[in-house]
Amino acid sequence: MRRRPCDPPGHDGRRPLWDDDPTAMAELSSDPGEPTRRPQPGRRNALSMLAPVERHTVQQRVYLELRRSLIEGQFAAGEVMRIQDVASRLGTSTMPVREALGRLVSEQALEPLPNRSIRVPLLTRERLDDLAAARRLIEGEAVRLAVRRLTADDIAKLRRITRGYDELTAGEEDHGHRAIYNHAFHFGIYRAAGSKVLLPIIESLWLQTGPFIRASASLYDGADGLSATHHHWRIIAALEERDGEAAAAALGEDVERAFELLRDRLAHDEAETPT
Amino acid sequence: MRRRPCDPPGHDGRRPLWDDDPTAMAELSSDPGEPTRRPQPGRRNALSMLAPVERHTVQQRVYLELRRSLIEGQFAAGEVMRIQDVASRLGTSTMPVREALGRLVSEQALEPLPNRSIRVPLLTRERLDDLAAARRLIEGEAVRLAVRRLTADDIAKLRRITRGYDELTAGEEDHGHRAIYNHAFHFGIYRAAGSKVLLPIIESLWLQTGPFIRASASLYDGADGLSATHHHWRIIAALEERDGEAAAAALGEDVERAFELLRDRLAHDEAETPT
DNA sequence: GGCTGTAAAGTTTGATCAAAGATCAGAAGT
DNA sequence: ACTTCTGATCTTTGATCAAACTTTACAGCC
After folding, report:
1. Least confident interval from A243-257, B183-197, B205-219
2. Pick the CATH number of B24-119 from 1.10.1240.10, 1.10.10.10, 3.30.360.10, 1.20.1250.20
3. Are B207 and B71 in contact (CB under 8 A)?
4. How many whole angstroms from its chain centre is CA A162?
């Protein structure tokens, strides 16, 4: 009943979101879909300074777009993703969409139903606790690894990002932008950990928590008298002293705080709709 | 030079490996491709004892077959996977294969090259250390979680599996079967941890170490005077005493031992071929 | 009136096909 | 003899199409 069978794809009022949309997220994130390595800045060779040619496949763009939307919390939990809907909304055929959806399913970002349809997973209390524990465990380890490898330059970058977040918080109420800054801060650290194994795992965990990041961000401010970036500044301080345990502890509290608020909200929702 | 362009698919001498091949792995593993939940044995209701109807999609079977082959170490590191080759070898068209390969890529089990071809990742020393650390961290946590939830029945099952492994070791030299028993033992524990978040992560880690499990198993026996299941028995003992730390430590040593041997082998190989 | 069986619409899955890109071999030029 | 260009072959990617499967709606029956 919500389908329009003969829609000319890509012309239903929404622009294909990726064309010329180099968001901060895209720049600051780790580009998980592109396995080509960037040249190390340590080398002096002019050739090694060349970035690999950007390869645009449609599937890549669909995947990145869906991924970004998920992390920013654009999709509601439990929402069913229909291939043709997504395809026409993004202005492509179904083929790239179905591959991107399959990819997100195997990253646990989406959930296949026995009906063969695909939906954004519901976040139950159990799953929430599971995710919180996993994130504390794995991201904590990533911070410990990063402590030894972060350069002064990296830390300065983290400061800039956090300052940007603070200014954003003082001003408007754009949750999407907050999510982007939060993402940039955390992954700036995780990427410095230098683990090609842990990083994709953490990305998957963020995708799984994604549908609720927005809810978290909107609840975060001042809920306990602490500013949104309180824990971020503590993490930076610990990183500067090369104190891995303190940094991991502060990060654990940062994660825990976000999930604590989500837990409350979830308990509230479940009490309201005891389906 | 190894391609035969007009091969009738599925009739090149190899049987499609999945038809009526209920291996121990298939039975003992967690069926990650099938999200339907089995009925809890705790309920007395007759309806809840019904297993969900098996749903066979071709992609599912291709995926499971490739996955099994990878974990058992049937593919050499660096081997390029061509869609049409795999399709004709498995007796299907290219479509299910390309979706299965895409799925394995996003689980980090396979690696996309800039050429857009897909290969089994090379295992470098760096990657090996990365994987070892990640496995100790995450599987250790899974064991700690499992300690509180394992029933006496579960532990008895672990004993049976380990005894089966011992008997296998005494007898023939079938690495595939050893890998299956080893897999069954570990995942018997991890599944009991009850974390729907950690389990897929561990599966992905095993897929990444897969190409070398065979090498590990062949090197394992008697390399240091310990039997192959020495650590497994220690883990079982710790589980019976509900000592999570001891169990995690023993598991850490089990993982570490396998990787130690791989490290030696890798150092040897790299010394031989310093490409 | 409510339940059951059947038909129709819509969706996913798998196959085939065309086009773009990559690899490799051979020819031409220095 | 070595490098570079070009063409042919092979591969992946994206589109279209047919078939299997779900779901929903509707009519018939108890």
Report:
1. B205-219
2. 1.10.10.10
3. yes
4. 16
Structure tokens at B106: 């996003």
Nearest nucleotide over every DNA/RNA strand to the A56 CA, judged by C1':
D13
Task: Give B72's contacts (C-beta < 8 A, 6+ positions apart).
Answer: B25, B175, B176, B179, B180, B210, B213, B214
Chain B residues touching residue A204 (CB < 8 angstroms): 201
Domain boundaries, chain A: 1-24+53-122, 125-272
CATH no. of B125-272:
1.20.120.530
Query: Could you tell me where the beta strands, DSSP code E, fall in A91-164?
Result: 111-112, 118-119
Nearest CA to CA, how far is B219 from chain A (Å)? Answer: 24
* B35 to A111: CB separation less than 8 angstroms, yes or no: yes
Does B197 contact A131 at a Cβ distance shorter than 8 Å?
A: yes
Report, at the CATH architecture level, how domain A1-24+53-122 is classified: Orthogonal Bundle (1.10)
| B162: alpha, beta or left? (left if phi > 0; alpha if psi -120 to 50) | alpha
Residue A49 has pLDDT above 80, yes or no: no
Within B216-272, strands assigned E span none
List the single best residue of A30, A118, A196 to mutate versus B (max B Cβ within 10 A): A196
CA-based R_g, chain A, Å? 20
Between chains, do B197 and A106 touch, taking CB under 8 Å as contact? no
**Across-strand partners of B118?**
B81, B112
Say if residues A159 and A185 touch (Cβ distance below 8 Å). no
**CB neighbour list of residue A275: distance below 8 Å, 6 or more residues apart:** none
CA distance A265 to A215: 9
Phi, psi of A142 (to 5 degrees): -60, -40
Question: In this complex, which of B102, B108, B113 lies closest to A99 when CB atoms are compared?
Answer: B102
Q: Which candidate, A119, A117, A108, places its Cα nearest to that of A80?
A: A119
Q: Check if residue A82 sits with its Cβ under 7 angstroms from strand C.
A: yes
Tokens of B119: 């290969």
Render pLDDT for B93-124 as a digit per residue (tens, 0 to 9).
Answer: 999 999 999 999 999 999 999 888 999 999 88
| Chain A / chain B CB contacts < 8 angstroms | 78
Does residue B173 have a pLDDT over 90? no
Query: Residues 236-265 of A near strand C (Cβ < 7 Å)?
Result: none
Return all residues near A94 (Cβ < 8 A) that are at least 6 apart.
Answer: A83, A84, A87
For chain A, the 3-state helix, strand and coil shares in percent, each to the nearest 5, are 60, 0, 35
Q: What is the mean pLDDT of residues B258-272?
A: 73
